Amino acid sequence: MARYQILEKAFIENRIYEVGEIVDVGEEVIPGPFMKPVDAAARKRAKETGLVLGPMQDPVDQLTGMRLDTIGASPQDVKNGMAAETCEVAASRK
Q1: What is the DSSP string of 41-87?
Q2: What is the dihedral of CA 86, 54, 10, 25, to 10 degrees?
């Protein structure tokens, strides 16, 4: 078992956990970015899975597979970080 502190409201193993709660989960559970490792087993599991703490991905991004600010931008613009600028320019032309 590995022990984690919940950083965002989460649904894990058929239960809703609130911020700050501690959860014990088995090794089959892959920790999410909202789960802060508390014990050695959790830290080991986090390292094995490449866990990075931080805010969860926007649900729209999860559903569409793309960021809304990249719609209408070329892949090269996205790579160069110009996607948001491209969208702002397009919006100003309307």
Answers
A1: HHHHHHHHHT---SPPPPHHHHHHSS-GGGTT--HHHHHTT-HHHHH
A2: 140
* Contact (Cβ atoms closer than 8 angstroms) between residue 1 and residue 24: yes
Separation between Cα atoms, residue 11 and residue 61, nearest integer Å: 19
| pTM given for the model | 0.56
Q: Give SS3 for 37.
A: strand
Please check the confidence at residue 59 and state whether its pLDDT lies above 70: no
Residue with tokens 């793309």, as numbered in its chain: 66
Task: From 47, 37, 32, 53, select the one nearest 1 (Cα to Cα).
Answer: 37
Classify residue 26 as exposed, middle or buried by CB count within 10 Å of its CB (0-12, 13-18, 19+): exposed
**What's residue 18's pLDDT?**
94
